[in-house]
Amino acid sequence: MKILVTGGAGYIGSHVIRQLIAAGHEPIALDDLSTGKIERLGDTPLVQMDLASADAANQVVEAIKKYSIEGVIHLAARKSVGESVDRPEYYYQQNINSVTNLLVAMRETKVMNMVFSSSAATYGSPDVDQVNEDYLARPINPYGETKLVGEWMMADAAKAWGLKVVSLRYFNVAGAGFDDLADTAVANLIPIAFNAIKNNQPIQVFGTDWPTSDGSCVRDYIHVLDLADAHIAALDYLNEDNREHSIFNVGTGKGSSVLAVIDTIHKVIGKDFAVDLVARRPGDPASLSADVSRINETLGWTAKQTLKDIVSSHYRATSN
Ligand code: UFG
């Protein structure tokens, strides 16, 4: 299929594009290149535009016609939790306008297949060890709110005009599937830790008094290549004529603490580095891991890569 991948020049989007090509699809990237990098795209065509701009729906209609697009994977979004707390209106403007414009263009051109990039941030701070998709979504920051509203918009489009749509709630995405596609943003734990080691700075652990087994926060780290493959499985599922908005967690089902991640980094690089135990970071849930039964059973998708694979692939890609 000819698939428009919004955010295609980003860290995750570029992995999705590589896996689409491997699965025999024809991806076309759409990206404003504000954080995306054109070198990640290789021969994949790029529609360079801001999806949240006033004229975006018309531009998307043109792109859909030009490339005979049959489905959309929508990843383009602002995704920094902290920034969303400081600039909520910007997050709503960017993340909601882009969904609106895309849906307007898809309805007009009768493109009926959509995979939407959502987030475990929609859950907020659940009081269960493993959260499933039926758990009440109660986001605790504007970023998570915009992703939840995006899901509602998808569900409404499915009801109103038969959009076939899957929302994937990503847990903590990390690692590199290809050495040229590493996460260079230094915005999440693993890249931050490697960056600290490189600069001879201590890695900070935000809180060791959480109600978890070792006191540090627990997250479900998912390899970006496994995540990319979940998009291919979701596209296949849409082709089975499903007409309801379906939501799937994308994680491993296994939580790892910050201290466990640091221990894995230690084993992978085989040398000592400094670690600082500091105060909790405001807004962090203690523990967030996925119940992955639904995606396992319905899409037949399971994460294959371990935390060690994630850490070593990031290390290899950023050392090269
Ligand atoms: N952490 C540290 N030290 C650091 C950085 C992070 O201890 O220097 C801890 C955090 O407190 C947290 C864990 O490492 O417990 C992971 O933090 P990240 O900032 O890497 O990721 P978050 O869990 O806050 O959020 C990420 C994505 C969100 C997504 C969420 C879903 O950034 O977009 O996962 O679980 F919604």
Structure overview:
Helix 2 packs across helix 4. The protein is of the alpha/beta class and 320 residues long. The protein has ten helices and 15 strands. Strands 3-2-1-4-5-7-12 form a seven-stranded parallel beta sheet, with helices on both faces. The site of uridine-5'-diphosphate-4-deoxy-4-fluoro-alpha-D-galactose has 19 residues, from helix 6 and strand 9. Residues 79, 81, 119-121, 171-172, 188-189, 192, 204-206, 217, 219, 258, 281, 284, 288 line the site of uridine-5'-diphosphate-4-deoxy-4-fluoro-alpha-D-galactose.
Which SSEs are present, and which pair or pack?
Layout: E1 2-6, H1 11-22, E2 26-31, E3 46-48, H2 56-67, E4 71-74, H3 81-86, H4 88-109, E5 113-119, E6 130-131, H5 142-161, E7 164-170, E8 172-174, H6 189-198, E9 203-206, E10 218-219, E11 221-223, H7 224-238, E12 246-250, E13 256-257, H8 258-269, E14 275-278, E15 287-290, H9 293-299, H10 307-319
Parallel strand pairs: 1-2, 1-4, 2-3, 4-5, 5-7, 6-15, 7-12, 8-11, 9-14, 10-15
Antiparallel strand pairs: 10-13
Helix pairs in contact: 1-7, 2-4, 4-5, 6-8, 8-10
The structure holds uridine-5'-diphosphate-4-deoxy-4-fluoro-alpha-D-galactose.
List its salient traits.
binds uridine-5'-diphosphate-4-deoxy-4-fluoro-alpha-D-galactose; four-stranded mixed β-sheet; 2 domains; globular; UDP-galactose 4-epimerase, domain 1
